[in-house]
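EI: anyone free to look at a 200-residue chain?
SC: sure, send it
EI:
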Amino acid sequence: MAIDRCWYFLKKEFSRVEISRADDFDAILRYMMIISDDIVDEFKQYREDDKKSDSRFRFWTYVPSVERGSSSVVIRWRKYTGRGRRSDPVPTSTVKDYQLPISQFYGCTRAEKRAIVNAESRFAKIRKLNLNLLAINRAHNALVDIVGGRDFCESKTLEKTALPDKSVMCESNDVGEILPVKEFTEADRLAVRKKVGANP
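SC: here you go
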């Protein structure tokens, strides 16, 4: 019976970390998005400065954009053809050392290349953070699965969402008493895994 209690409290601790991690990751991603938006704004400002200073200014071909994913910041570049709003995505399969090589950005001016190199050097840190956050997610999900705490962990996450002012964990005055947890459905499991960026 003592071993059963140990497994219960091990699941409980992993659940506590899981819930805390979800909140912490939300804050981390908010800060990463602010930084990423600043990189995009800086790129656009370089373009405006070039436009004002160069009497023979030629419109720049490339533009970066960022959006928040479930557990990372998604960075995209698009190439505009000059015909209306049509654009083509720049492939990201050639990322090396967390940066897209300048050879991916052909047909642009010298000033535009400088701005792209600057943006990519800053985006590199965001991509590196993305990769390591994904590794943390995978490692922690694996730990929870090893102890068999997935249903316990996810039901506590849902409890917290429904009742934010309550304790996130089942607590008992008697350390030996194990409280029942509510039944957790497959749909609940998929929703939580999607939220933390794990595969279903």
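EI: The longest strand covers residues 73-80.
SC: 👍
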